[in-house]
Amino acid sequence: MNNQDNRAKTECERKEDLMDYLYGEFSAEQEKSFKKHLLECISCQKEVNEFRAVSTSLKAWHVEGSPNVSLSEIVGETVKKQLPTVATARSVREIISELVAALPAWFRYSSAFAAACSLLLVLMATLNTEVRYDKNGFSFQVALFSKDTAESPTQIDKKQVETLAREMITQMVAEKQEQIKQELEIQISALNKELSEKNSAQLSRVTLELKTEQRERLQRALLELERQKNKKPSEFEDDPFNLWGSLDIKTGDRNTTNN
Amino acid sequence: MSEAILQSWSDSFVELSDNEIIERTLNGEPEAFNLLIRRWERQIYNLAFRMLGKEEDAHDICQETFFSAYRHLSKFRGDAKFSSWIYRIALNCCHTHLRSRSGTNLSLEQQYEDLGYEPTTTVESINETMQRGQVAGLVKKALMGLPPDMREVIIMKEYQDMKFHEIADVLGIPISTVKTRLYTGLNQMKQRLGYLKAAL
Ligand SMILES: [Zn+2]
After folding, report:
1. Could you state, in order of their start, the residue ranges of all structural domains in chain A?
2. How far is A3 from chain B (nearest CA, A)?
3. Contact A71 B28 (CB under 8 A)
4. B131 C-alpha vs ligand 1 centroid, how far in Å?
5. Domain B15-104: which topology?
6. Which residues surround ligand 1, an ion (CB under 5 A)?
7. Are domains B15-104 and B106-200 of this chain identical in fold?
8. Ligand 1: distance of its center to the CA of A109 in Å?
9. Minimal Cα distance from A52: which residue of B?
10. How confident is the model at residue A105 (pLDDT cuts 50, 70, 90)?
11. Least reliable range by pLDDT among A33-47, A212-226, B17-31
12. B66 bridge partner residues
């Protein structure tokens, strides 16, 4: 091929059309029209062939390696900042709302989560509970005796009863937690579909009911404690679990703490 | 929260559009952004790799691009395409990187060009007579020698398979400019491949 001849040739003005044709961005009609032009334009014919060859060459170069974007560096840090690291000695409300904020929206509005919340609220409000929420998840410690009752002048071995109560409640809570976890997992796929239909009204209603129930339970518990303070110490020694009756938590039926 | 719950949660994002994921990310679910990264990182990496020619540079650009996108996500307009926006960010990062590179030394094909030599080898013959690995080497060299604004158009058209209007959208230039830039770029590639083959 003689290069001098190529350069001497008059260039065609239809450069943009050539690009549309080459990359298939013409409409059927436009393409038909350009093909007609190609038949009589040597300059375009030549360029079509040359550019197709360049395209072929370009395709020989493949990318090496793979993207390795570190998610934690971009998003992880921000996510971590949003979660509380250790949350102790704070109000139940505060902790629950923080937990709720850390959960995805569909989960927040699920009825299973509302049920779990209701249980936790009642448990923690009724008993003097210390809640922790850290990177390992949700955990709580239960202290049966509040400051007031601990100072009450009773003769029983409080430490002993407290230890027993602690063990029982911890076990009960663990069992309930496991049960909730299993229930949640079963319901997850169904809940996912229902998400769009859920709204916050449901949660508000449950929360409202909870508040009332919680208040009532607290009142009952306080009354019962008050009543027992006035009892003779011997009554406690005979039946240290008498306390449970007042809290609606029966030793024989630990899993049903919340009707 | 158990693994199963988290997994199920992330699965629920798979069907979402880019804009829906952005909305969720901005509405207090930052983890949702991970899905956008997974969706677009390969494309961004490939673009950066071909713009800069080096694996480690492509990694850096990729990371930088998504970090920048995440930080400025609230500035993203919902009526635009996320892909155009992220491409633009990536190309800006590439240009910054290219500017910071120390003085460009005159390439062999540039010296040929300055002397007024015409290549005697056609691109057709390169494809016919050379091994694919060798062709790839030539292509990489020739492409790296192109001005970046021609290089990016060739990359987006040839490798990223984008339409002219999409490229115009990313670069913020008229469609006709994209076409003429591509035309000039392909012409230069043809020339450079010829010089490089002759220099072998
Ligand atoms: Zn023509």
Report:
1. 1-55, 105-228
2. 8
3. no
4. 33
5. Rna Polymerase Sigma Factor; Chain: A (1.10.1740)
6. A 12, 14, 41, 44
7. no
8. 65
9. B124
10. low
11. A212-226
12. none
Question: Which of B50, B58, B164 is nearest residue A25 as measured by Cβ atoms?
Answer: B164
- Pull the structure tokens for residue A195: 């998400």
The H or E element spanning position A200 is: helix A200-229
Q: What is the C-alpha separation between B79 and B88, in angstroms, rounded?
A: 16
Centroid of ligand 1 to alpha carbon of B33 (angstroms): 48
Boundaries of every domain in chain B? 15-104, 106-200
**How confident is the model over A145-171, as a mean pLDDT?**
47
Average pLDDT, chain A: 63
| ipTM score assigned to the predicted complex | 0.88
Q: What is the pLDDT of residues A4-17, one digit of tens each?
A: 444 435 689 999 99
What count of Cα atoms within 13 Å lies in the side-chain half-sphere of residue A4? 0
Do residues A31 and A21 touch, judged by C-beta distance below 8 A? yes
Chain A residues in contact with B118 by the CB 8 A cut-off are 3
C-alpha–C-alpha distance, residues A112 and A191, integer Å: 9
Asked: is B106-200 a CATH 1.10.10.10 domain? The reply is: yes
Task: State pTM to two decimals.
Answer: 0.57
% pLDDT > 70, chain A: 32
Tens of pLDDT, residues A112-154: 556 565 555 555 554 544 444 444 444 444 444 443 333 333 3
Which residues, 6+ apart, have CB-to-CB distance to A92 below 8 Å?
Answer: A120, A121, A124, A125, A129, A131
